[in-house]
Amino acid sequence: MSYARVLGVGLVGMTGHLVEVEADLAPGLPALTISGLPDTALHEARDRVRAAIVNSGETWPNRRITLNLLPATLPKYGSAFDLAIAAALLGSAGQLPLLPLEGVVLLGELGLDGAVRPVRGVLPMVAAAARAGVTRAIVPVRNATEAAVIPGVQVRAAGTLHQLVAFVREGTPLADPPPVAATTIAPGPDLADVAGQEYARRALEVTAAGGHHLALLGPPGTGKTMLAERLPSILPALDDEAALEVTALHSIAGLLPPAGGLLRRPPFQAPHHTATVPALVGGGPGLARPGAVSLAHRGVLFLDEAPEFSRGALEALRQPLEDGHVHLARARGATEYPARIQLVLAANPCPCARPVGDTACECSPLARRRYLGRLSGPLRDRIDVQVTVPPLRAAQLMETGEVGEPSAVVAVRVAAARSAAAERWAAVGHRLNAELPGPVLRRPPFRLPARDTVELRRRLDSGSLSARGFDRIIRLASMQYSPM
């Protein structure tokens, strides 16, 4: 036998595609050719696979070898095809009967010693295989727990190439994946830790209830960062669909915890102000990886000291905030990642940032305008809630008898508000106020009475309010309004 075929999965963004790995041996000088739009990591697979096969006690076929990855028009990235390539090569050389691997997806990178190493993106790969009708998968041991999350797929774990060969030849069973740990949400920072700031706390609750973006402006030490870090603690746990999306993104980024299981807590990302554009929105050579805005999908992206971020990085957020996804175009193709986030910006009012606020500010009015001007008008126009956080008084900071509401209490109200919003907007296919398109809000039955929008219309006509700002205010007002 000189031809063999096994199954793998290629990943472009979050979309997986079933890939047929073909191997053919022909007479001629020993050589190995890989076709099917492989990247550099795949071209280097010839050396990894050769060493892994020899060090696993098998014979390398000294013939002309052609490997083809179908569909040939789909770009192939990464080292996850190593295990499938090795199996196809041994099958085409007649050393491995491939009938037990019929309808089985093989995923894993090979070390030179034959060990099957973990790879990124196994969860969305196995999910893609399941959608294509494949019900069995063999993955690295360290990826087995996340792969087992996908229902309807029988997952087995291979620690070495030798174990896979023994399974195919002799029926030696492969390891079952470890049991998926029960999903628990560990307690995080609590809103009760925040002293005072009743107005900002109320803004945080409104933000959580409607899924709105938030800007916190005030001098240092007023609790802006504490408030932002506690926003996830009052958000509802992710449902199955959202949890699968978030877990898949973290799998692609290689950030899943070893225990596996779906991520139920809304993610929180707080990149440093020196973060580059690719770090924020995604990028990198070859397959563009998700950035902080996608890793915060269904959660919170917090930009502390927002004016200190580069202008390019801040402006790159405008499109994801508007569309809820990131589209990364590259020479070899485009990649799309979801980015439905709540953005929280925190900023000092001026460069000197005196803790006592404006009374001791040494900055000129021009310097203050320039500093906050780093947050462009179009970006600020996308922020639904903008709050000034005043300095704390000694009585607020030192008072021990009265503590603010804990996150658990506020989370109950947020969940009730979101449930009401989901019921209210079910007819138009949305669940959160922040997701509502402007035209929906401006048409019956959800249009506010004319008497309630007189001032808004006046400001819109005078140019002091944009159309986007008009819709933003209506979205916030709609949290308290139900049509008759």
From TrEMBL:
Ranges for domain AAA+ ATPase: 210-393
InterPro entries: AAA+_ATPase (IPR003593), CHLI-like (IPR045006), Mg_chelat-rel (IPR004482), Mg_chelat-rel_C (IPR025158), Mg_chelatse_chII-like_cat_dom (IPR000523), P-loop_NTPase (IPR027417), Ribosomal_Su5_D2-typ_SF (IPR020568), Ribsml_uS5_D2-typ_fold_subgr (IPR014721)
UniProt-listed Pfam families: ChlI, Mg_chelatase, Mg_chelatase_C
SUPFAM superfamilies: P-loop containing nucleoside triphosphate hydrolases, Ribosomal protein S5 domain 2-like
SMART domains: AAA (SM00382)
Gene Ontology MF: a single term: ATP binding
Family of this protein: Belongs to the Mg-chelatase subunits D/I family. ComM subfamily.
NCBIfam families: YifB family Mg chelatase-like AAA ATPase
Name of the protein described by the UniProt record: Magnesium chelatase family protein
Organism, as annotated: Micromonospora inyonensis
